[in-house]
Amino acid sequence: MLNSLYVEGDSRLHRLPAGPKLLLVLLVSLAVFLTRSPPVLGAGAIAALGLYASTGIGARAGWLRLRPVLLTIAVVALATVLLGSVEEGIVALLRLTTLMLVAAAVTATTTVGAFIDVVSRAARPLERLGLVRADDIGLAVGLVIRFVPEVLSRYDVLKQSHRARGLRLRPTTVLVPLMIQTLKAADEIAAAIDARGIRAHKQPTENQERPT
Amino acid sequence: MDVRFVQAGASFEGRVAVHPSTLSLSERRIGIIGLNGSGKTTFARMINGLVQPSEGLVTVDGLDTASDGDAVRGKVGFIFQNPQNQIILPILREDIELGLRSRRLARSEVQARVDGVLGRFGIAHLADRRVHELSGGELQLAALASVLVTEPALVILDEPTNQLDLRNRRLVQETIDRLEEHVLVISHDLELIETFDRVLLFHEGRILVDGPPDDAIGRYREIAAC
Asked: How many domains does one find in chain B?
């Protein structure tokens, strides 16, 4: 079940350290809101698509990975058209698609460990101020990234179970077990984090089994 | 390595999982056997503080598992029944490194330790592999490496040969036999623990036999046959 969004490769983006890549995501997320011009945003989306393709992920795997997010973006764009105008819908579609492609390119070329390292380093000044535990922030971000493919895998297994038993997919029979399974997996990971002393600076009280 | 239970027991929502018991565990290789639900895993989790005693006291080299949890877990490594639950990050090398993160060691030392533990278990070639691609035996060795990189004095393995084919089972047994650390193994695989120094037989939350493997295994066979 334990899978990864990381795609092995040796592209230019793979060789770039995680810090500059996260900075790129930040800059792109700001840049797409500096313009409302569909041609400019369209050019940005094409460039982002090129960046995503340069990771070597392949068309089919790349499409399958982005399909659920694209569906969500399509819904948002459609709602924007209905509530605003066609032009606003196109702008929303292009902005979100560009962001999604750049973020997908970065996650495909950066290991979870590299993410944890860079986020922990970035949070270190806040730790010095006594506001956070930098390693915890890094670990939390890493775990979120780690759980994305796991949730998708669990959804696939549930879908196959429905098919095997001749059942129709219904939100109640998919989402509820998916949530329960994900929470259970999160509990198991929390226990593993405690058992391996990964947060050794802190007493493991939150996840510890407490007998009565 | 000295583990002590002083009238220590664990209950969950009124149900007694482990009845209070007093004993000391210091042998190098200890086995725990018993039927499903007999309290084996709860007992083992009490040793590294994953389960705190609801009464009594558990200590490891004098450290209280309830109040010195971090220090205890530094001494006692725990490998879960399903090693997939043990492994947190998807690439093996990264996952093993994660165990050292809180120690804030120099990058070169982290690398050296990870390479050392991978080499020790003969899995250096798997370092950059994705964990979900590993076989059952490889996964068990990976979980072992992820725990032993922190250099615990005692390693607890919960059913390490569960669901392994014969080849992988042998691989894991040979690895456990070669471990220099103290080991405590929970197992239904009686062959695995038959040469151990001491075996505890659990039944309905109590230690029914505590002694040489032959005594405990013989009694276990009688119980299982009922």
From this structure: 1
CB contact under 8 A, A192 and B88: yes
Residue A205 has pLDDT above 70, yes or no: no
Q: ipTM exceeding 0.95?
A: no
Residue B186 corresponds to which tokens in the numbers above? 């929970």
- In chain A, what are the domain boundaries? 12-110, 136-195
How do residues A116-147 score in pLDDT, each as one tens digit? 889 989 999 999 998 888 888 988 888 888 88
User: What string of DSSP letters covers chain A?
Assistant: ----S------HHHHS-HHHHHHHHHHHHHHTTS---HHHHHHHHHHHHHHHHTTT--HHHHHHHHHHHHHHHHHHHHHHHHHS-HHHHHHHHHHHHHHHHHHHHHHHHS-HHHHHHHHHHHHHHHHHTTS--HHHHHHHHHHHHHHHHHHHHHHHHHHHHHHHTTPPP-HHHHHHHHHHHHHHHHHHHHHHHHHTTTTTTS---SSSB---
Q: CB-based contact (8 Å) between A197 and chain B?
A: yes
CATH of the domain at B121: 3.40.50.300
Return the residue in B52, B98, B117 with the most chain A beta carbons within 10 A, the one to mutate for interface testing: B98
Contact present, B207 and B200 (Cβ < 8 Å): yes
Which of B11, B70, B89 minimises the CB distance to A197?
B70
Mean confidence (pLDDT) of chain A = 88
Interface of B with A in 124-143 (CB under 8 A): 130-132
Q: Which of B161, B166, B211, B154 is nearest to B186 (CA)?
A: B161
B73 is in which domain, residue-wise?
3-225
Residue-level pLDDT at A2: 53
Whether residues B89 and A146 touch (CB distance < 8 A) is answered with: yes
